[in-house]
Q: What sequence folds into this?
């Protein structure tokens, strides 16, 4: 599991005074950055052999400006050519959002998905497991 703390910025708030829902998908992408590093996408993002196939977010509480948000990221499932990333956002000890993203191992030169190589599969499995619903 990976953890990252983000600080909500004032411009991310909406007319209701809380963080706009569209912001959370961006935070979750930032929370997946350590996974991108595992696949060698740190210095050259165009070399990253992954594409995003699906993203979903459940908003379970309001997120407010003025308090940091803890992002938790883990691997839920590893398939043949894709894997499911589970994510959570916590503010002041409360779960405020949960989501999933499906990442596909992708050969850009062939414009096609491919089986996840064993070395990446092994590293992903080290981060596999359910995210607890409590801190």
A:
């Amino acid at each position: 599991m990976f953890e990252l703390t983000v600080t909500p910025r004032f411009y991310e708030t909406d007319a209701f005074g809380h963080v706009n829902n569209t912001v959370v998908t961006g935070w979750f992408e930032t929370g997946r950055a350590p996974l991108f590093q595992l696949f060698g996408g740190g210095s050259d993002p165009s070399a990253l052999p992954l594409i995003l196939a699906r993203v979903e977010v459940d908003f379970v509480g309001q997120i407010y400006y003025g308090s940091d948000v803890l992002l938790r990221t883990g691997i839920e499932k590893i398939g043949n050519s894709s894997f499911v990333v589970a994510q959570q956002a916590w503010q002041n000890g409360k779960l405020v959002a949960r989501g999933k993203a499906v990442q596909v191992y992708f050969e850009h030169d062939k414009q096609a998905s491919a089986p996840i190589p064993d070395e990446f599969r092994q590293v992903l499995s080290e981060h596999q497991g359910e995210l607890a619903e409590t801190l």
Observations:
- The CA atoms of residues 56 and 99 lie 5 Å apart.
